Write the structure tokens for this entry.
Amino acid sequence: MTQSPQQPSGGQHMPNGRPRPGAPTVAPGAPSFQTQPRYVDYGNPRAYDTSMRPASGLTAARYAPAQIQQPSQALPSSAWGTQTRRVQEVSQVAHKAPTTSILTWIALAVLGFALIAVLGLSLLQFVVFSSANPVWWPVTAFLALLSLLVIAGVILLADRWDPQPLPLLLIAVFWGGAVAYGLALVFNTLNGMVFFALTGDEGLADRLMGVISAPLVEETGKGLGLLVLMLLARRYFNGPLDGLIYGALIGGGFAFSENILYYNRFLELGGGEAVALTFVFRGILSIFGHAMYASFTGIIVGFVVRKWGSLLGFLVFLPALIPGMLFHATWNFFAGSPSTIVMIAMFAVEAVLSFLWLCLIGLLVWDESRLTRVRLGDYANLGWLTHEEVDMLATWTGRREGKRWAAQIGAKPVMKTFIRESADLASIRQRLLADGANPKVVGIEQQLLTRLTENRRELLSHVR
């Protein structure tokens, strides 16, 4: 294992290990292109650094602070930095997808079967207990699927910066559509019976169930999916954007199964016109409702995980449910109003909230790119990357220009791998700062640094 970088004496480094701006940072054994490495501050690193936390208490890291190690040998100069204006032949390298654990695939299979079982029970219930023609069930399922596809499309756009493995995204959808929905169906029914026994009024019991039971039960069930994803793949749950992505997909899966239930119910009560009207209200005007509620929980958990580590991420779970529950309860409270004016105001507010939520997604994507730039800047300041490469890997413009250049010389798969793995490396670095130098995570960092070096050498060797 390579030794930790030696820091110059004389107070040239800040307490968190980052060199002070303007300080001499010549490191022993630095690569030839970094024999006079220059410090570049890529923003406000203290906004993301956690190495100054107290040494005790819940905010303390379990492991010692994680230091960036020096490259074991001089790395070749950057193909990106020296060849961007040249078009030469570069061989293609197979695209490698992010790896996931066996437990992830087992969970995906189990949840997939669970969702199939939920849909099967829904179809059975429709055929046995509904007076409507069974041919309508695929229609209602298709209408519910349309809304899910829109939500998934928005989330996939948000996930472009640092894509999550597809199995984890599917687990989020399946959890919402099967587990969270199943828990809500059971406990909301039981709570409705309790409310009816206490009040003796069926209408009041339904209203209490919608305002009290539904927000508590449904948001808790959806939020538990976030904890499962953290346990299965903590490596890919590294910030508020990840939390939003997983939370929104869980909410989208939940809305998919619930919408089928509502469409079938209104089909029996009012026929095709009632289904069309319900689709407009639920599938269009309030399409992002459940996705937003669950994403609020994911954002809070993700922010705490990124800033203070995994332990507090689990401990903050219950408080993180509160915003989603409040929004959900407020919506259900006004949804029971018979006033047309109130209904119009509800959907107007929902439209504004949906717009603000989409703006929040854009803000979190920008924040994620900023974090990538800060963390890759740490590696560039110690010689793993050039600063030109940081500009390419951590900005939308740089990525676009890099892929365009690579496509011209037939190396686009190499460049895509370089970009994706560099974003993964930045996330791992942030996790090491939050959780400390966990040996398992340090090993992942070393693997990614090895891959980074191989990608750079591959580009350079073929360019030459």
